[in-house]
């Protein structure tokens, strides 16, 4: 009995897990703002991956004891315990299926983590640049470990998809460049006193990219030739659990995607007619690409997006949200060259010394239509990812660091961000036909993701009510064609998106399914409270719960 009484509570177990994880994964430490992580990179080899799995197993054992301790049944402890158990169980299912031996993606992989972590490192002092140089020197070993994992997968006949591999080889070519590459460009702003060290370290890091690129091209790609690009139902179920925090009914989700497709399509036709009568929605969007409201120049666009977020915070704070001062700071950034096509957000460090940031990939463009940017920055910035993820960090002492950071469930976060776009439409910020059509196009894209991501990976039949190839089975080629026919975005974006879905099965469906969970929870809470329902109070309570899988999310939101 004394062992149970002396056992830590679930939140203590969760935060001990974060500490141990940072020791194994210094990139996570950088995201959290842990200074000691700065010179280091993780071990991406099979042994390094097994160490992470062993940490998860040991943590689950400690959680068993923690849940028996008096006080573990409080709401805050219960939520944390449920999240920790669900996340670690999902992680172990992925590990035990040896998915870490075939991780190739154009957006999220060990390779991308190695590069992206440099964009989050502080650069104000010589000591910061010393850390950058040390981490650059660690790049070859980190990428050797990643290559060892892929080589082990190759030996075990666990291939990544050829299309993903070809895309990443192309990305590596862009990062390597012809004049020292991305790492040399990144370090050029470093102090002159460290110039020789930074230059040598950047050369070593760039050389590691060359070695990996050549191995992928000359050894790995031939070794996986003919492998499928899709994962099949069993692998898809594991991955969808990882991204959505629940075991989904894939056939029901697929049908929901189609129902949203038809609903949104009808609304898009109505808005398009206000702009270009007689044209289809996508003809209208292409018209807006050249004739609609736009900002010229990448830097001017960055500044415009910063003002949009600042103005949105000023309009929503005190009316629909109650924001702490440190949450009101968010930075608009340009994504580094060679990024995937989609904009993204990075969370603040735990002490807010590094603020939340939105990132715009320019893809070589110089003209940026606003019909697309406005709703996207409601999603990535305010009231989307920034308000949720920064609020989690703000209340981390009331939750746990785990719930506020590494315990993140993708569909919860992406669902909130898509809900945020809808909220801005509900509040009347998207009445301009151009911007509302852009919002609906974004909603359509998320519906298409549900259809094609599930459809092609599980090889489902295209239904009879589809205007596109009814009765046929989905393939990546059909998915790309369908996506292109129903998108106002350029062909290179559509290509990048499709490869993203192939490399991250189950992730893309979380936007629409997560939005549905947020709406379901809000509707239930509103029905329970009737006229006394306070949307501002509900929003802040909902954003202060930390991460939850979709089933748990609906239950908790409904009870607020």
UniProtKB/TrEMBL annotation:
Q: What is this protein called?
A: Uncharacterized protein (DUF885 family)
Question: Which organism is this entry from?
Answer: Streptomyces zagrosensis
């Amino acid at each position: 009995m004394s062992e149970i009484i002396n056992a830590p509570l679930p939140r203590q177990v969760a935060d001990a897990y974060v500490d141990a994880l940072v020791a194994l994964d210094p990139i996570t430490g950088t995201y959290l703002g842990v200074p000691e992580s700065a010179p280091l990179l993780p071990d991406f080899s099979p042994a390094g991956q097994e160490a992470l799995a062993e940490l998860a197993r040991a943590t689950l054992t400690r959680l068993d004891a923690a849940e028996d301790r008096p006080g573990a049944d409080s709401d805050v402890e219960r939520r944390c315990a449920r999240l920790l158990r669900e996340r670690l169980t999902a992680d172990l299912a992925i590990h035990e299926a040896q998915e870490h031996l075939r991780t190739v993606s154009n957006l999220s992989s060990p390779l991308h983590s190695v590069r992206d972590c440099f964009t989050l490192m502080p650069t104000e002092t010589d000591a910061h640049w010393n850390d950058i140089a040390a981490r650059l020197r660690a790049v070859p070993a980190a990428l050797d470990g990643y290559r060892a994992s892929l080589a082990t997968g190759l030996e075990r006949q666990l291939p990544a998809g050829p299309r993903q591999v070809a895309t990443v080889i192309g990305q590596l070519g862009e990062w390597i460049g012809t004049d020292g590459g991305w790492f040399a460009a990144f370090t050029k702003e470093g102090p002159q006193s460290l110039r020789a060290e930074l230059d040598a370290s950047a050369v070593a890091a760039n050389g590691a990219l060359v070695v990996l690129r050549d191995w992928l091209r000359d050894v790995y790609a031939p070794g996986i030739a003919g492998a499928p690009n899709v994962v099949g139902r069993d692998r898809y179920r594991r991955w969808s659990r990882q991204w959505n925090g629940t075991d989904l009914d894939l056939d029901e989700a697929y049908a929901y995607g189609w129902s949203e497709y038809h609903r949104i399509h009808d609304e898009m036709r109505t808005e398009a007619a206000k702009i270009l009568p007689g044209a289809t929605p996508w003809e209208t969007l292409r018209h807006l690409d050249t004739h609609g409201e736009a900002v010229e120049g990448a830097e001017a666009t960055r500044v415009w997006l910063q003002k949009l977020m600042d103005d949105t915070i000023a309009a929503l704070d005190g009316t629909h949200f109650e924001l702490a001062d440190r949450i009101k700071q968010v930075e608009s950034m340009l994504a580094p060259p060679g990024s995937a096509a989609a904009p993204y957000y990075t969370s603040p460090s735990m002490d807010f010394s590094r603020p939340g940031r939105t990132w715009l990939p320019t893809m070589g463009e110089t003209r940026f239509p606003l019909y697309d940017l406005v709703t996207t920055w409601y999603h990535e910035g305010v009231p989307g990812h920034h308000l949720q993820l920064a609020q989690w960090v703000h209340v981390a002492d009331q939750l746990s660091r785990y719930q506020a950071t590494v315990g993140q469930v993708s569909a919860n976060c992406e669902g909130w961000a898509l809900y945020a776009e809808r909220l801005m439409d509900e509040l009347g910020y998207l009445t301009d036909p151009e911007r509302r059509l852009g919002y609906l196009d974004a909603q359509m894209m998320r519906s298409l993701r549900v259809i094609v991501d599930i459809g092609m990976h599980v090889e489902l039949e295209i239904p009879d009510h589809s205007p596109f190839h009814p009765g046929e089975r989905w393939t990546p080629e059909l998915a790309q064609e369908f996506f292109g026919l129903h998108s106002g975005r350029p062909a290179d974006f559509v290509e990048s998106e499709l490869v993203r879905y192939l490399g991250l099965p189950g992730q893309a469906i979380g936007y629409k399914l997560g939005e549905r969970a947020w709406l379901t929870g809000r509707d239930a809470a509103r029905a329970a409270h009737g006229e006394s329902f306070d949307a501002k109070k509900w929003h802040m309570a909902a954003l202060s719960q930390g991460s939850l899988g979709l089933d748990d999310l609906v239950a908790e939101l409904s009870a607020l």
